[in-house]
């Protein structure tokens, strides 16, 4: 068994105030770049097709339940149409503690179709393709808001990561893309989603939302998976290992509304999003790893969570809360394989870390840190099963907390049990343990156990235990 130890020293992040981002950004930038440089110099140059991300969680889907669909799928493949049709369900049960102790089993599910139509075979344009995604979600049943945490504060985590707030069918994306410069530059344009290009170094396998993928969605200015917005993006391969990414997208808070599920309208857009990301796909001690550092800027107006336009207290300001002309978000992380199981490169352990840091003047989640471990093929009799464990620390915005204090002062209440009282949100720690069973190539069952310390960041809320079950079917 090959093994090495990776140490990552995350900087201590204190309350930043209005200008603290610049100091913290410089510290985190130096730490991330130093980490990436260390990975580069300690590993051989990555060769084409020499990087295997299976143990990192990027496992190719198995044969679908419907096989070749009576010969239909091979015909479609021959004509350049490739698709994945899947089903996902997530159940969560409040086994103990939380805000509401009444027992409840919450259930959601979704169907998703992701497809690519290859145009290169017809046009000769390098990597020319149309890409699309359609998601149907059902059962708007969220255990977090209904049982786990105090409904008087905004939730900072979700026990069922695929809960999306509505039972609805949406267009996730529909884009055209192609490559230039000997396939070093890839361009994409259309109604898109950030998941096509950005912050994709950590898979979404945990059922706890804070352990699902990276942290860039915590920016609250762009959206995950099944919501689309107009834009164009560019990826440039500087080397075989290093890719630089950027783009320009609309910032549209109305994208979540039901009326925009299939709309191509720009109505409601407040400004533009400018993402920038560096992604390093490399090897350390011969084992694959992937690292990133990203910044997201938007020029759309943002409302301050605490301060008023004419006075320091926005809650009682007759002119309302002050606004800011722009905002930012920073994210970074890594996902590194650290062991192999014998000579099988598809079995072993990986570790990951992700951080999202927001402008606490307008983002009620100041920062989130998540660390996790995954092991593929722990048991010889079950080489395709997974074991995963992750812990998340979430710090709420000081501006958000100050506004809660101001509201309590205004209503002259200090009793947590008073309906007029606004709970004070601080930090929370959540953990998730799962075992993923590959029953068939097309069927996965994944029971999990979640622990919530200070749900929603509220110290008065009892710690909670949540049990869950995720089922995945590939057609």
Automatic annotation (TrEMBL):
Signal sequence annotation: none
Name of protein: Porin
InterPro entries xrefs: Carb-sel_porin_OprB, OprB_Porin, OprB_sf
Family: Belongs to the OprB family.
Species name: Hafnia psychrotolerans
